[in-house]
Each structure stands twice: as structure tokens, then as C-alpha cells.
Amino acid sequence: MNTQILYKKRPKIEIDNRTQFQPSRLESSDLLISVIIPVYNEENSIKQVIERIPNHHNYEIILVDDGSTDKSVLKIKEIEKDNIILLQHQKNLGYGAALITGFKKATGNIIVTLDSDGQHKPEEIEKLMEPILQDKADLVIGSRYLGNCHYKVPIHTRIGEYCVKICIMTLFRQRVGNNQSGYRCFRKKILNALNDNLFVGMGFSTEFLLECALNQLKILEIPISLNPREHGTSYVNLVEIFKSILNCIAIYYLKRYKLKINTSFIKHSINCILKLLYRIKNPR
Ligand SMILES: Nc1nc2c(ncn2[C@@H]2O[C@H](COP(=O)(O)OP(=O)(O)O)[C@@H](O)[C@H]2O)c(=O)[nH]1
Ligand SMILES: [Mg+2]
User: Fold this and answer.
1) Other Cβ atoms within 10 Å of 6 Cβ, number
2) CB of 29 sitting under 6 A from ligand 1
3) 102: helix, coil or strand?
4) What is the pLDDT of residues 219-247, one digit of tens each?
């Protein structure tokens, strides 16, 4: 993967007194938290997202720019924080690919991921970490359905998430309603148990959950607030995400029942079926 480290500043061992940060019990712990943020053309929101992350000496902020063509990188460089690591993909490789690049560079024992479009509240990071620190879960997902969602979630997103929820419940007896949420927290060591991702675009979120469930890790949802996107529109391509979720579920169904599989054969077959359906619906 073509990744370039643009610059890296090590975290300082002092708290920034400019903001009114309330010292928490994290202060005295030896935990290092890697906050990983995938960035793709979010010049209007990225600066504010980073600035709102609590100034905590235990945090390293890893931004993975995924071939943005706008001023996102310039905006990141304007920020005066000591604990920022900026990584860059030369070209757009996808949401999941950006997170995987971040995971590889993370030095923290806890990883938090959140979106760069300003929909998640960076102030809620510590809330997400709580169940992990108390060993109540291996993976925590921030859920808009349990918390406050300040906008109307599109019907196709609701239907998609409902289908993925039913699949995860049927296959692994775990309930994850907001399964496309990008706000998550886990201990870095769980990555050692997981297989490499097959889906590096938006399908990453579904595969990550299925892979965790397959490895019998406990997934817990907690309430978060979700704001509407203030700038631009969602990058989710409905056809692409539908295809990757369908592929992903088929592959994990076979993995769950320990059936020998050829993943590229499954991907190819599902693509052919979808193309055929499209042709039937749209005859020339
Ligand atoms: N690195 C990377 N991030 C992406 C890509 N597409 C979207 N994102 C980021 O992923 C997050 C979620 O994307 P978004 O379009 O807001 O999806 P939605 O919230 O589900 O509608 C945002 O912070 C985007 O900037 C991509 O191709 N690469
Ligand atoms: Mg969004």
C-alpha cells in the first residue's frame, strides 16, 4: 500500500491548559489511545473535528488522508496540536484501507475510530472507552439508534442496517443495530486475532463486525449523538455498498459453518447474479 508519512509530532507529556480539560482517571494510567480518523475530501469539517478532540496527553491522533483532492491536508497542517500524525495515500483506496493504514501505525493500546465529516462528537471518545476499560466488551460501537440522532436517517440505510443486524444475529447471536457506524473503540491487541480484511471500502464496517463476531469477541453498542452532515454529501455509493455487504455476508456465512471457500469465486458469482438481475430489469 502506497503510504507516505507527511509529518509526525510525538505526544508531549503535558496537558494543554488552554482548554478546560477535566482531568480524568485516564491521566494517571499508562494507556495510550490512538484516535484514527479517515479523511476524504472533508476540508470544511476536518479542522473542527480535530480541534474538538480533548487535549489529553494520552491521545495520539492519526489522520489518514485517502487521496483527497481538496484542501483537507492543508487544513490539517494548520492545526496546532502536538500529538498529530498525518499519513497519506497517494490515491483514493477506500474508507477501510485508510483505517487499516492507521491501525498499522497506531502505537496505542486502545484504538478509537471516528468520522471526519463532523457527524460524531469527539467529546464522546471517553464514553466509548469506558466498557473496554471495564472489560465489559471487546468492541464498542457508538449507536445513533440508542442515542440522539439529529437528522432523519435515509430509509435505504435503515433497511440495509436492519438486514445486516438480522444476519449477525442469526449467524453469531450478537445484536448490532447501528452496524455501519464509524465510531468504534477496541483494544489494539484484538487485531492480532482477526484475518486480513477482504473489503477495504465502505464494506469494511460490516466485515470488521463479522470478523470480530466470528472470533467470539463481545460487541457492545452504546448511545452516541449523531449530527447531520453540515458540508457536502455522503460518499456512500449505494450499489457498491450493497454489493460488498452481500458478498461479505455470503463469505462469513460459509466461514461460520466452516465450509471450504474460495472468496473470489463468491465475489464473482454474486457480481454475475446482480448483473443478470440488472439486465432483466433494464432490457436493452
Ligand atoms: N479514507 C476514506 N474515507 C472516506 C472515504 N469515503 C468516505 N470516507 C470518510 O468516511 C466517513 C463516513 O463517510 P460518509 O460519506 O459521511 O458516510 P455516511 O456518514 O455513512 O453517510 C467520512 O468521514 C468520510 O470522510 C474514502 O474513500 N476514503
Ligand atoms: Mg457521514
Assistant:
1) 13
2) no
3) helix
4) 999 999 999 999 988 999 898 899 889 99
The domain of 170 spans 2-281
Q: What's the pTM?
A: 0.87
**58 in ligand 1 pocket by Cβ < 6 Å?**
no
Dump pLDDT digits (tens) for 142-192: 999 999 888 888 898 999 999 999 999 999 999 999 999 999 999 999 999
Residue 170 to residues 142, 173, 216, 237, Cα–Cα distance (Å):
22, 6, 14, 26
Residue 34 belongs to a domain with what CATH number?
A: 3.90.550.10
Q: Are 96 and 201 in contact (CB under 8 A)?
A: yes
DSSP state for residue 120 in the 8-state scheme: B
Q: How far is the CA of 78 from the centre of ligand 2 (A)?
A: 23
Number of domains composing the chain = 1
- Whether the CB of 236 sits within 6 Å of ligand 1: yes
**Alpha carbons 279 and 276: distance in angstroms, whole number:** 5
DSSP E strands, the chain: 3-8, 33-39, 59-66, 84-89, 110-113, 139-149, 184-187, 219-226
| CA 279 – ligand 2 centroid, Å | 32
115 lines ligand 1 (CB under 6 A): yes
